[in-house]
Specification:
0% strand, DNA-binding, 10 helices, 2 domains, mainly alpha
Length: 219
DNA sequence: ATCCCGAGGG
DNA sequence: CCCTCTGGAT
């Protein structure tokens, strides 16, 4: 994969996706952090359904901590892993209040020290709330990176490092959402819509499931 | 490697 | 039914 090809890939994605941003609902960095914690192994639609009632009741760390685990749980029972998420959300709020005046630290290490926050969540918050050129490798980006391929790797960390090296700098800030949205709506896990893909001629995975779009079987 | 764990889609 | 969804902690 040469440089010109990588440039072309991101130029096309940018044209196809005019607003490369998150589909999670949030008003503040704090709310984004909570929404991302809730989004583990869950769809944005499912998370938004919970935060739409949770955030009005608990818009900040103080209110969320006061709401407590049972109170948070009530809003997120429909989301997978809700028990551990409710616990982590409240514990995270308590640390934010104790150490950061209730604000979200703009610092990778501080973020990763919060319960329920790992490298992926920290990267999303740094990118989306603070505009930093980080790249969170989630299930979608891991899949796309290996399919096209943009960066092959067996671990998310290897893929992240490969992508950071190979993505043209001009696209780095938006790369996370360009890739994730392309993965969500076109290069899906089960039945990729290769026929509608703007990267078709640049992709090695090309057409492998093209027949499946008509209900046929993959080779 | 295993657990956490609900909803929607195919 | 089985797979997938912006993972993290043990």
């Amino acid at each position: 994969m040469n440089k010109a090809k990588r440039e072309a890939i991101f130029a096309r994605l940018q044209e196809a996706i005019p607003e490369p941003t998150t589909e999670l609902l949030y008003d503040t960095p704090f709310q984004l952090l909570i929404a991302v914690i809730l989004s583990a192994q869950a769809t944005d639609v499912s998370v938004n359904k919970g935060t739409r009632t949770l955030f009005p009741e608990a818009p900040d760390a103080a209110a969320m901590a006061k709401l407590g685990i049972a109170g948070v749980s009530r809003h997120i029972r429909h989301i997978g892993l809700f028990n551990s998420k409710a616990k982590n959300v409240v514990a995270t709020c308590e640390i934010l209040l104790r150490d950061y005046g209730g604000e979200v630290p703009r610092d990778r290490r501080a973020l990763e020290a919060l319960p329920g926050v790992g490298r992926k969540t920290a990267n999303v918050v740094l990118n989306t709330a603070f505009g930093e050129p980080t790249l969170a490798v989630d299930t979608h980006i891991f899949r796309l990176a290996n399919r096209i391929p943009l960066a092959k790797g067996k671990t998310v960390r290897a893929v992240e490092e490969g992508l950071l090296k190979h993505i043209p700098k001009a696209y780095l800030k938006d790369a996370h959402h360009l890739l994730i949205l392309h993965g969500r709506y076109v290069c899906t896990a089960r039945k990729p819509r290769c026929g509608a893909c703007v990267l078709f001629d640049l992709c090695e995975f090309k057409g492998r499931f093209a027949a499946a779009e008509d209900g046929g079987e993959a080779p």
